[in-house]
Amino acid sequence: MKKLYLLFALAAFICSCSVTESIVFNDSQSGEYLITYEMGDAMKAFEEQMGGGAANSEKKEKGEVMDTTMVFADIMETYKDSIAALPEDKRLAMEAVRDMFMTMKVDEDKGIMDMGVGLNFNSLEDLKDIQDKINKVQSLNDQGDQLDALKNGSPIGKFMGSDDERVTYNMTSSGFERTTIVDAIDDESMGELFDETDENDKELMQYFEESYYTVKLTFPKAVKSVSFKDAEISEDRKTVTYNANWINYLKNPLLLDIKVEFVDE
After folding, report:
1. 75: helix, coil or strand?
2. Which residues are registered as beta bridge partners of 259?
């Protein structure tokens, strides 16, 4: 079953999936960062490819249910001898993500498969290289080389996101900002990532048309206003949720930038 989950993780970049970036802030600007990949559609597509689905539903055994959190520091302590014997690049990657954790929520019968990578941070400074850490976590996957091959040498590569961007977070007593910094991008290159006259691009764009990148921010203070037009603010005005279509986000990652103003206290 573990190997199947790794295969699903790979399939998630081929089939439609959505991503949620969630940050919960405490008064001290510490908190929890979690990025979750919702891969239920990938699991369903894989099952159909393997001959499953509604036609065989009566013959199927009850599907597996899992809801677990794996802390890398604990794994490294438990398997320290095995980790010491890993190739140097894998061992260094493990060291780099020691303070992170992974979550997995699976309900096969309900078509749920959510995999997350997170960090309990002490300050915003801990988030400055969060994307690099997430990439290192992904590199530990046995399927990492296959993902790299897909990303660099196949038509689906440009649908898997870019490593040329990083997100910075800044919070003061009066507000918060999420800012995306992208290397080597300008107004002309934005929106030219996909060729809508190319059959491969057209077909892959259809796969991802119902996929979204969602940002969910929870603050210790009430929110007065936000710069993102269609953002939802919770009833207690402490949580802001907004999203962008995956294709639009890939064309222009700056779409998810936001400025938040807090209520004066």
Report:
1. helix
2. 177
> What is the per-residue burial (b if ≥16 Cβ within 10 Å, else e) of 13-46?
bbbbbbbbbbbbbeeebebebbbbbbbbbbbbbb
CA distance 250 to 190: 9
Helix and strand totals (H; E) in the chain: 9, 12
Whether the CB-CB separation of 121 and 132 falls below 8 Å is answered with no
Closest residue by Cα to residue 243 from 211, 219, 209, 265? 211
Residue with tokens 């303070």: 99
End-to-end CA distance of the chain: 52
| Residues ≥6 apart with Cβ < 8 Å to 185 | 164
Of 231, 254, 249, whose CA–CA distance to 241 is shortest?
231
pTM: 0.81
Q: What is the pLDDT of residues 126-163, one digit of tens each?
A: 999 898 898 888 777 655 555 555 555 555 555 666 66
Instruction: In whole angstroms, give the CA distance from residue 129 to residue 119.
Output: 11
Q: Tokens 């206290």 belong to which residue?
A: 265
Average of per-residue pLDDT values in the chain: 80
Q: Where are the domains of the chain?
A: 2-262
> Contact, 218 vs 238, CB < 8 A?
yes
Identify whether the C-beta of residue 238 lies closer than 8 Å to the C-beta of residue 220: yes
